[in-house]
Automatic annotation (TrEMBL):
InterPro entries: Tubby-like_C (IPR025659), Tubby_C (IPR000007)
Source organism: Acyrthosiphon pisum
GO biological process, one term: protein localization to cilium
Record-annotated Tubby C-terminal domain positions: 162-342
Domain of life, source organism: Eukaryota
The protein's name in its UniProt record: Tubby C-terminal domain-containing protein
Amino acid sequence: MSATTRNIRHQTLEQQKQLLEMKMRQVRQTPQIIKASDNVMPSARIRPKSARPLEMNCYDGPLTYAMMNCSPDSSDILGVSRHSINHDVIEDMRKEVAEMTVDERRISVDTEDEESCSISPVKNLSSIHIKENSPFIYPSSTITDTNELEGDVYGNLETFVLEPAAQGVHFKCRITRDKKGMDRGLYPTYYLHLDKGNGSKIFLLAARKRKKSRTSNYLISTDPTDLSRGGDSYVGKLRSNLIGTQFTIYDNGTSPYKSSIEGVQERQELAAVVYETNVLGFKGPRKMTVIIPGMNKNHQRVKVATTDNYSSLLECYRTKNMDDLIELHNKTPQWNEETQSY
């Protein structure tokens, strides 16, 4: 909007407001007792200005006061008189205010700026240009809850659990804990199942805590009867730090700190989990952040090999180096009165 057009608009509005004020003065000077509202509601007490902050709409253009219920330019006039009210005067004032409002709208439309521009509709994700090295691979059409397919297990289970989920497919899983576990409940066993829509479930993974570990260390296997590191169904492990606030999930590869053997695959990081104190303090569940590798243009997971601590997922999250990584957060906990829990 040019400066000249803006000045013309302000001058026009000022002239119209001055005319309106003159009309109001004439009405007050008439024999009938007619009193304009002046933003004072009937039977309302006069309060100091600091009693309540001024509330305005987010739009701060020339129509700001016209959109308010109790505005200086409002056409509502409250009259208190024992005699008959001059309806012709009130009608003339209402027409004057209506004409001024129409003029304001006409000026606003003719000189449309960024404040009065309508919001353009969201583009379809298929029309968004995605970089080739972007970790976010969008499907050909927007995926919603209504057109998502129910996930199912196909092929070899060991391969299936390590591959990224297919696009447009929803996998709903549930984790259960067997408190008995091993050694009189000291090492409980955890199970991951895929929930089906018909009420059935399919086993995916099992995990147990390893013995004689300085930190929490869980073995993950696709065979619930063989939870050993040397088993054929061993697919990875989960390891935490000393205080149990940061966890890293690895595949079944070999640690880079151990002696390297030819033909042995070096392990990769599949995910990292960080727990923090939430806004409720220690009274509620902790805030959980999950960092996972993104996908490349071939729909394959970006490889994150930890040759040192500076290239790990946790270190990338700490330094905010989130290139080719995806950051997820859990929902804010809500208190349930029925169960008395979050």
